[in-house]
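User: Second chain of the day. Same drill as before.
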Amino acid sequence: MKQYTEFKALKKAIRKAAEAAKADARFYIRHGYYKTWSADNREAADKDAGIRHHATEARYSAYKAGRLNRSDAIRYAIIRAEKEIDKRTAATIAKIEAAETAPAPMLIRINVEWKRNTYWGYNPTAEVYAPNGQAANMTTGHASGCGYDKRSAAVAEAFNDNLAVMRLLYNLEENRLHHRNPQSRREFIGYGSGYYEKPYFEGGVGIECFIRILEKAGYKVISNEAGKYNDFYYAEPAPRKGRKAA
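Assistant: Same format as last time:
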C-alpha cells in the first residue's frame, strides 16, 4: 500500500462534490424539488420549499409578506446555501490537511469501558490511544441508547477525532482513487468506511469492521479481549513482507 504525503485526489473529490452540492441547492431553491424527483413528486412539490429551507427566517418572512420579491429571495437563499457548503467543505479539507502532517501511529490501543445507565442499560465510553511520535494522541467517544452496536459507535467517534488514525483511512482512500478503475470504497477499504466522498468510520457497524480496515491499512490486531465492563484491543504495524517481526 503506497503511503501518500498529500491526499490530492481525495481533496479534489471533496471539492468536486461541493460544486455538485451547490448546483443541487440552486436547482432546489429555484424549483422547490430536485432533479432526481419523479414527475409526481415534482408536481406535488412546494415551489417555495428551497427558499424556506435555505433563507434566514427574517428574509423568508419578508418574502411571504411581499416585502421581498421572488428573484431576490432566491438570490439571497442561494448565497446562504453556497456559503454553508463552502464552510463545511473548508472544514473537511482542513481536517484532511491536518491528517497529512500527522505521522502514522506507532500503535493503536482501544479501551472500551461500560457503565450502567438506569434507562439505557450499559453504555460504552471508548478511549483510543494512537501515539505517532509527535503527541500522545488520545481521543474519546461515547454512545448511548439501544437497538444498535454501541461499542463500534463509541470507537468510531474516537477514531474520527484522531488525526493519526484518520491518516490511515485517508491514505487508503487516496490509494483507491489512484486506481484507473477504482472499486467502490466498501470493496477496496471495507464495510464501515463511510459513504459519499469523505471517508469516515461509521458507528454501529461492529468493531470487527474497524479491525479489518486497520488490517487493510497495514496493522495487525494482536490483542482482543472482551470482558463484562471493559473491552481491550491493541494493534501495531504488521511486519513487512520479507521481514520477520522483532
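The CA atoms of residues 29 and 53 lie 8 Å apart.

User: Great, on to the next one.
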